[in-house]
């Protein structure tokens, strides 16, 4: 079992992991969050959510100022994010233009195609949260409405535009090739290593296929039971460092930390 010491870092997905898939609460995880905070162990959010969504959440979770990974790795914030724009980024709008051309061939919708109110309705987010979820910088959330056997062709078409597709717990996500939670985490760890004498030991927690690249990179992986039809499959050989939870959401999150981390006496 690992001890609560200063060389530890937690890397976590939000929806379906630290946050409940349906109502976004994190009550079951709050005891661990307090304990980690007490021991100054950083909890790095690694999510498909936008920076505009993550920053207020960090505040409510007591994690302000901690680095985070947004939009599935398309955006890494090393010191939190000082300045937030209140409109979508140009890179994002260019990506949406590319997707619009593909909508002639494939049936799908992106967050860009909806209003805040519509996003709020089908995600269960509040109107303000839905608005934050649409302040995107580098990736698009996609609701696939076509046959699932067309996804492979869609993937090929995206690759021709330098884009890639990954599956979250709820939606599909399109982002530039070379982005992903795993690559972003590697970048983050490299930056942090410049200021740290000892290498960090990482525990990662996630429930969706988009978490797999992150869960491959961490020292200890908690695969939280999820709602996605696609299972999270890890290629790593150290099975003893992988734990699959019996519970979903924040209860699974707690279960995973209970498994790997010793509680203080
Ligand atoms: Mg998730």
UniProtKB/TrEMBL annotation:
What's an example of a GO molecular-function annotation for this chain?
A: mannosyl-3-phosphoglycerate phosphatase activity
Q: Where are the transmembrane segments?
A: none
- EC annotation? 3.1.3.70
Q: Which InterPro entries match?
A: HAD-like_sf, HAD-SF-IIB-MPGP, HAD-SF_hydro_IIB, HAD_sf
Q: Which SUPFAM superfamilies match?
A: HAD-like
Q: Which domain of life is it from?
A: Bacteria
Coiled-coil stretches: none
Major enzyme class: hydrolase
Q: Which UniProt keywords apply?
A: Hydrolase, Magnesium, Metal-binding
| The protein's name | Mannosyl-3-phosphoglycerate phosphatase-related protein
**Organism in which the protein naturally occurs:** Candidatus Pantoea formicae
